[in-house]
Write a structure and sequence with these properties.
Blueprint (H helix, E strand, L loop, with lengths): L1 H8 L2 H8 L10 H16 L3 E3 L5 H4 L2 H20 L9 H11 L3 H28 L8 H23 L4 H12 L8 H9 L6 H33 L17 E3 H26 L24 H9 L2 H22 L13 H28 L2 H4 L5 H26 L4 H25 L11 H4 L1
Antiparallel strand pairs: 1-2
Helix pairs in contact: 5-7, 6-7, 7-8, 7-12, 8-9, 8-11, 8-14, 13-14, 13-18, 14-17, 15-18, 17-18
The structure holds protoporphyrin IX containing FE (HEM).
Length: 462
């Protein structure tokens, strides 16, 4: 009886707060209980203790956590954008204008969404590089590497489908160029392209398809796979960093997640959020004039992250540029952790001292080779003209592809002759190809002008 009377006298808000907990504690110390709830939430995401060396910022650079933070910003701003956006060719562009000029903080929300999406792509790739260069994908983390690749592809897909939604010239033609790559997939290319576009070309059905993929399908898949990824990080724990001359640690000092890890995460997240909001307040997301399907801009470029592939298309037969080379690249990336069993290098930056030098050397070779080969193909060598008796899939496909493959294998053998170990050679080849691809992307962004001819960037000329 007395208990009932105390409960009814209890303020309503306090009773509501108490009812949220499954096992209510005495109602006096609310702050203490709030901390308890927060702490148990944190300990669902993190283990209760973590290895002290993994807290060093210069080991992870907070890149995985930053990816998560950007995913959160994209989720929140994306939901807000839904209130103003209409997914039809007649209304989409105007809804962007209205959002930017008549909705409170509409421009800022659009900017935050746009810059977070682009930054996420860069950050996820940097995170992948960090994991690769520290051997963070070695047993038992191989499967988590695969989950990571799935996340990377989803981030690209989310960026790509979102690109079309403003329905301006940039969006319309970048998606037209990007989706044209699909038609080169043998046998199924036409069907896949039609399914995605909802017809023979980019139009109203494409916008509906991209909208559904962008706001529902891709985010759901990402949330599911990211949760799995994080759960595996929690279970497998982070690879412990060490110097090349140190053996794998048998015992490492551990510290409690609260406050050691969590305080670092909160500070880092707040600083990053402040920078992101500052940048988005100053720099607007691009919006060109409304899409005009009958007027193609010159040059018509794909989105920046596909410009490496578009550059490859200028030099190789499309079947090789759009399918064989990216397909082989992705397959090699996926099987990488399963090949690395020759030496225990988990936690060692660049595998070894020699690995570090070889990686730096291979970066230079990769950049120089990409620039040299682009110039050679542009101004000197015309393989289809030299070999007119062969079909172009051979003269401009098999022939340059085989030559490139031989050069890569030759480079690997050369490094072995210099005494490099297998894992150092694999790392050097990875760096060579990655640096080459980034160089092609940079050429596509800065050095391609009207008619996709090579030009100097505007800033350099003026
Ligand atoms: C949306 C994308 C992603 C998110 C949110 C994410 C999140 C995270 C987080 C929070 C960690 C813990 C430590 C750290 O910050 O490095 C981590 C570790 C890891 N991630 Fe990711 N990640 C993503 C994409 C990727 C990609 C693209 C790969 C590789 C292809 C990858 C492979 C791994 C591996 C193997 C680990 C364990 C590393 C170690 O033990 O050293 N992740 N990830």
């Amino acid at each position: 009886m007395r208990q009932e009377i105390t409960q009814t006298r209890e303020p309503l808000l306090r009773r509501m707060w108490r009812s949220m907990q499954r096992d209510p504690l005495p109602p006096r110390d609310d702050r203490g209980r709030m901390r308890l709830v927060m702490n148990s939430l944190v300990l669902h995401l993190h283990p209760s203790k973590v290895a002290k060396p993994t807290l060093r910022f210069t080991y992870t650079f907070g890149l995985g956590g930053l990816s998560l933070l950007l995913g959160g910003v994209l989720g929140v701003t994306g939901v807000l954008l839904l209130f103003a956006y209409t997914p039809s060719p007649e209304a989409a562009y105007n809804s962007m204008l209205t959002l930017q000029t008549r909705v409170w903080y509409g421009q800022l929300i659009r900017n935050l969404h746009h810059w977070s999406a682009n930054l996420l792509l860069v950050v996820v790739v940097l995170h992948m590089l960090r994991v690769f260069f520290t051997g963070g994908f070695r047993t038992p983390r191989e499967f988590n590497w695969l989950l990571g690749i799935a996340l990377l592809l989803l981030v690209v897909a989310a960026n790509f489908t979102g690109y079309l939604l403003p329905w301006d010239q940039l969006a319309y033609w970048a998606i037209t160029v990007g989706t044209s790559l699909l038609s080169y997939i043998p046998l199924a290319g036409e069907v896949i392209s039609r399914l995605l576009l909802g017809g023979p070309e980019v139009g109203a059905a494409t916008l509906t398809n991209f909208y559904a993929l962008h706001i529902a399908v891709i985010p759901l898949l990402m949330a599911g796979i990211a949760s799995f990824h994080l759960w595996r990080v929690r279970k497998d724990t982070l690879t412990v960093p060490r110097r090349a001359d140190e053996p794998p640690p048998e015992r490492v000092e551990k510290v409690t997640t609260i406050p050691h890890l969590i305080s670092r995460e909160v500070v880092f997240a707040l600083v990053m959020l402040a920078l992101l909001i500052g940048w988005s307040a100053l720099v607007n997301a691009p919006l060109e004039e409304a899409a005009n399907p009958s007027h193609s801009p010159n040059p018509a470029k794909a989105a920046w992250y596909f410009l490496g592939l578009q550059e490859l298309l200028l030099h190789f037969h499309p079947f090789f540029a759009a399918i064989v080379i990216p397909g082989l690249g992705l397959t090699a990336l996926a099987v990488l952790p399963y090949l690395e069993s020759d030496m225990d290098v988990a936690g060692v930056w660049f595998r070894s001292k020699r690995g570090r030098w070889l990686a730096a050397f291979s970066t230079l070779i990769g950049v120089a080779a990409a620039v040299g080969l682009v110039l050679l193909d542009e101004f000197v060598l015309d393989l289809p003209a030299l070999l007119p008796f062969l079909p172009t899939i051979i003269s401009n496909g098999w022939v340059p592809f085989a030559a490139l493959l031989l050069a890569i294998i030759g480079y690997g053998e050369f490094l072995k002759l210099l005494g490099a170990r297998a894992c150092e050679v694999r790392q050097a080849l990875f760096v060579l190809l990655f640096a080459g691809f980034i160089t092609l992307t940079a050429i596509g962004i800065f050095f391609r002008g009207p008619g996709m001819a090579l030009v100097l960037p505007r800033g350099v000329l003026s």
